[in-house]
Amino acid sequence: MNFIAVDVGSTFIKAAIYDLEHPTVLYTKKCHTPQPLSNPDPRYFEVDAQAIVDVIRDIISKCAMMTRDIQGILFSTQQHGCVLSHPQRPRDTYISWQDTRCLKENPRTGRRYMEDLEVLIPPEVMESTGVPIKPALALCNLYTLFQEENLSSQGEIRVDTLGSYIIHQLTGQHICHITNAAPMGFVDLGKKAWNRDILSRAGLDFLRLPEIVSDLSCCGHYDGDGLNLAVYPDLGDVQTSVFGTGAKSGDMIIHIGTSGQLILIRDEYLPGDYEIRPYFDNNYCYVVSRMPGGRNFDVQIDYMRQIGEKIFGISLSREEIWQRIQRECIQGESTGGLEVDCGFYELPDRLADGKILHINHANFTPEHVISATAQDYGRQYKRFAAVLCRHEPFQGTLHFAGGAVLKNPFLRDAICRELGVSTSISAQQDEVYSGMFQLAQRCVAQSYCRERGHVS
Questions:
Q1: Fewest CB atoms within 10 A around its CB: which of 87, 163, 225, 340?
Q2: Domain contains 210
Q3: Which of 233, 264, 280 is the last residue of a domain?
Q4: For residue 282, what is the DSSP state?
Q5: In sequence order, what are the beta bridge partners of 7?
Q6: Alpha-carbon distance 296 to 381, whole Å?
């Protein structure tokens, strides 16, 4: 049986065709995720949702040209954001987790919109959701959007996860998986249902939301390109990547892609100063998100690129800059006394306010800046690892995942030194492929059991 798996990330949309029986990967494709809509305010990050669906359709068409023997398709997507479909807006837009409009000041209250929400929805009410009120949460940005644009609450107003929007466009079914629904900020994890009390407190109880499912059974069919594909629920990209590492309960995962996440797998629901996201096999992912990721390093890389372009007339891509840095600059652990605070984007406990400190006439070099930045990554991950472990010794296995850290062994080494870990396991280069392969096998097995009336 051949199966399409699609991972919709912030930077790339990656796809593969799996032969689940043999098992082999028959085909892979990677393309850029559509760019955000132009906006002079960098706090806004919206993408034309239909443009994302168009890329998905194109991927399916290309897969159909590779082989006609394809039975199913599974999606893994970025989390926290949402797609808003509103009759007063010109298009359906994906409001990304990178959108921080909720940090703007509400002229009616003199507080940030997020601070208004913190008054309306106290922490004890949010506890059942597994996530706190924070920048990038769909709840916060939807509240801000309706306040700012004075949108009507009448008519067909639909909010989807990115994955459920894609599924709806392909099949007409309005369904999302619990792993993607929960990080939006208004799901009761215990009941596995939308928390209408939270929506009501935020003045958003009129939204039409998809049905939440927790299993991996087929949720609809796509007919096109000569194919009839069973479509399976959308999965959260963090959980999919974690699944691909092979980590077990008690293990910790450092996932560094565009952003960073620190994850501990546990088999019990213990709220703390971290997020709790539903995982597979009745486990939970304790997560600290907004950790330093590839985009934090990109602040420095883009500075170097601008020097090349504006001063020397040389244009190099981020990838080319990284290759040169690793080849010519990363020669040791020395920082020359330089210290970097890598908080160039919001961190878990504070807003963006990065720094380069203790510069003197001799130490302000690319080598020292990069080494000091990697060292601060280690400090940040060590600090929040203690929070996840509730300040008890970590006794599991440490796994690394995500393209930004897997391509940069010096960064892994720096983090391990700070954590005091001598050994760790690195995932395959694209651990999401491994996770989706195994989960696709589960999808087929669960649908098989359901068709025959068995409990999967």
A1: 87
A2: yes
A3: 233
A4: T
A5: 14, 76
A6: 14
The owner of tokens 């906006």 is 39
The whole-angstrom separation of Cα 25 and Cα 305 is 36
Q: How does pLDDT run across 29-67, given as a tens digit for each residue?
A: 999 999 999 999 999 999 999 999 999 999 999 999 988
Q: Write out the residue range of the structural domain in which residue 336 sits.
A: 246-430
- DSSP three-state, residue 323: helix
Same domain flag for 360 and 298 = yes
CB atoms within 10 A of CB 87: 10
C-alpha closest to that of 156 among 87, 84, 83 = 87
d(CA 341, CA 376): 6
Residue 455 lies in a domain: no
Q: For position 174, which CATH number holds?
A: 3.30.420.40
pLDDT given for residue 331 in this prediction: 62
Neighbouring-strand partners of residue 83: 94, 160
Side-by-side strand order, sheet with 284-291: 275-278, 284-291, 260-266, 252-256, 398-401, 425-426
Q: For residue 1, which of 73, 70, 75, 74 has the smallest C-alpha distance? A: 70
- pLDDT bracket for residue 326 (50, 70, 90): confident
Tens-place pLDDT, residues 105-123: 999 999 999 999 999 999 9
Alpha helical stretches, state H, 105-236 = 113-120, 123-126, 138-149, 162-171, 178-181, 196-201
Q: What is the pLDDT of residue 135?
A: 86
Of 216, 199, 209, whose CA–CA distance to 75 is shortest? 216
Residue 249 CB burial class (10 angstroms; 0-12, 13-18, ≥19): middle
Residue 408 lies in a domain: yes
Both 347 and 272 in a single domain?
Answer: yes
Q: What is the spatial distance between Cα 408 and Cα 186, in angstroms, rounded to a whole number?
A: 36
Q: Is residue 456 pLDDT above 50, yes or no?
A: no
Print burial letters for 269-300: b (CB count within 10 Å at least 16), e (below 16).
eeeeebbbbbbbeebbbbbbbbbbbbbbbbeb
In a shared domain, residues 187 and 309? no
pLDDT of amino acid 332: 66
